[in-house]
Design a protein that fits this description.
50% strand; seven-stranded mixed beta sheet; four-stranded antiparallel beta sheet; 11 strands; mainly beta; globular
Length: 118
C-alpha cells in the first residue's frame, strides 16, 4: 500500500510561486492515479488536479494555466507547481492516491498549508 508525505507549503505573496511535493512509498506507485486536493477554512475539500498512471492530467477550471501536476515514477514523487498564486489559493493541500481498479482516491497524506497574502 502506498503511503504519502507532502512538503513544500508555506507563506507567500500573491503572484509568487510554490512547488509542492508528495513522496510516496510502495512499489506500485507508477500504477496509481495521483491527485492534489485542497481545503480552505470553512469549505469542503476539492479536487485541484490529478495525473493518471499514463500521464494524462486534469485540472479544475480555477487553476488551469497556473498550476501544473507532474510525476516522477522513478523517484515515487508527484509534484504540484503553483504559479501566479492568488489569496483564494490559500488552503491545506493534500496529496492523494487512487489504486488500480478503485473508484475513488482513498489514500491520503497529512496535508501541507499554503497561505497566499495579498
Amino acid at each position: 500500500q502506498v503511503q504519502l508525505v507532502e512538503s513544500g507549503g508555506g507563506l507567500v505573496q500573491a503572484g509568487d510561486s510554490l512547488r509542492l511535493s508528495c513522496a510516496a512509498s510502495g512499489r506500485t506507485f507508477s500504477s496509481y492515479r495521483m491527485g492534489w486536493f485542497r481545503q480552505a477554512p470553512g469549505k469542503e475539500r476539492e479536487l485541484v488536479a490529478y495525473i493518471t498512471s499514463g500521464g494524462n492530467t486534469y485540472y479544475v477550471d480555477s487553476v488551469k494555466g497556473r498550476l501544473t501536476i507532474s510525476r516522477d515514477n522513478a523517484n515515487h514523487t508527484v509534484y504540484l507547481q503553483m504559479n501566479s498564486l492568488k489569496p483564494e489559493d490559500t488552503a491545506v493541500y493534500y496529496c492523494a492516491a487512487r489504486g488500480p481498479g478503485k473508484l475513488r482516491f482513498d489514500l491520503w497524506g497529512q496535508g501541507t498549508q499554503v497561505t497566499v497574502s495579498s
